[in-house]
């Protein structure tokens, strides 16, 4: 159970059993149950404004960019010419904000199941949600699994920015979803999905890697550092229909000027390469 007591919010979940994470709250800005989940926005002492869904922290003003940028620029820079991008989830708008920056991207389609998350993010997290204002983006409110099933051979890159595999996002971690994504991608297409944490979820990650290898010739797993996610890390699972894809080496290396012009605060070519260097225990549990 998650709660705010004595101006402290505490996050607990069965997905990281036996531990919790707390932050000091200055003010609760919004709290309401949507048709799908509990939605909370609060202003905190250290992390600024924070979006919480079903008691789990989704993004904070202080550290959200590390996740949004890596989920976006790792797959985009590994594709030779990404023009059409599908975002599944991502109702806070952060991934959309980053995708529309990429110069070759012409069309971004986003499917988010919960309209309330989009509405609340626009109101209380406008910088994160700024991608919704781009003319490149078309937003659809609905179930991601259903949406993907109706779009074949249409996208160069699919980014799955989901919450954890409980509640509304559970179906986005299954074999059926990845098969649909494989069919929705154009030849040479790439999918990048939120891939949980190697410290707590190695069995979930290994299962996903194993079934993805039956569908895609190239599959890899990397991670980024983010203080407010469990263990301070979150992973991303990458699959490509192109057997020559090397996720560890970007095809398009962004220069320092590119990084500055796109206002990137975490991603660069060096951190891209480093994201795939796994600690020994993770190599054994995930890759062997």
Automatic annotation (TrEMBL):
PABS domain mapped to chain residues: 6-241
Pathway: Amine and polyamine biosynthesis; spermidine biosynthesis; spermidine from putrescine: step 1/1
InterPro entries in the cross-refs: PABS, PABS_CS, SAM-dependent_MTases_sf, Spermi_synthase, Spermi_synthase_euk, Spermidine_synt_N, Spermidine_synt_N_sf
GO cellular component term of the entry, any: cytosol
CDD domains per the UniProt record, alphabetical: AdoMet_MTases
Alphabetized UniProt keyword annotations: Polyamine biosynthesis, Transferase
Catalyzed reactions: S-adenosyl 3-(methylsulfanyl)propylamine + putrescine = S-methyl-5'-thioadenosine + spermidine + H(+)
UniProt feature coiled coil, ranges: none
PANTHER family, per database record: SPERMIDINE SYNTHASE, SPERMIDINE/SPERMINE SYNTHASE
NCBIfam families in the record: PRK00811.1, speE
Similarity remark: Belongs to the spermidine/spermine synthase family.
Listed name of the protein: Spermidine synthase
Organism: Orchesella cincta (Springtail)
């Amino acid at each position: 159970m998650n709660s705010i007591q004595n101006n402290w919010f505490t996050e607990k979940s069965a997905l990281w059993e036996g531990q919790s994470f707390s932050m000091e709250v200055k003010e609760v800005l919004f709290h309401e149950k949507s048709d799908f989940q509990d939605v909370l926005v609060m202003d905190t002492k250290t992390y600024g404004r924070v979006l919480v869904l079903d008691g789990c922290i989704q993004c904070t003003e202080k550290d959200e960019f590390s996740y949004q940028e890596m989920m976006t620029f790792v797959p985009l820079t590994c594709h030779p010419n990404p023009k059409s991008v599908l975002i599944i989830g991502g109702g806070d708008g952060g991934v959309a904000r980053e995708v529309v920056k990429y110069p070759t991207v012409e069309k971004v389609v986003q499917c988010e199941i919960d309209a309330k998350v989009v509405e609340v993010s626009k109101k209380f997290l406008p910088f994160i949600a700024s991608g919704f204002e781009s003319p490149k983006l078309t937003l659809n409110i609905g179930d991601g699994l259903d949406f993907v099933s109706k779009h074949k051979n249409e996208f160069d890159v699919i980014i799955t920015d989901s919450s954890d595999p409980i509640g509304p996002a559970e179906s986005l971690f299954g074999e059926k979803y990845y098969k649909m994504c494989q069919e929705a991608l154009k030849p040479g297409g790439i999918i990048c999905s939120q891939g949980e944490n190697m410290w707590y979820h190695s069995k979930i990650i290994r299962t996903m890697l194993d079934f993805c290898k039956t569908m895609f010739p190239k599959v890899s797993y990397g991670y980024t550092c983010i203080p407010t996610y469990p263990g301070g890390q979150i992973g991303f699972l990458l699959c490509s229909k192109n057997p020559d894809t090397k996720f560890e080496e970007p095809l398009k290396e962004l220069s320092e000027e590119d990084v500055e012009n796109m206002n990137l605060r975490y991603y660069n070519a060096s951190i891209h390469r480093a994201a795939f260097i796994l600690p020994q225990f993770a190599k054994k549990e995930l890759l062997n």
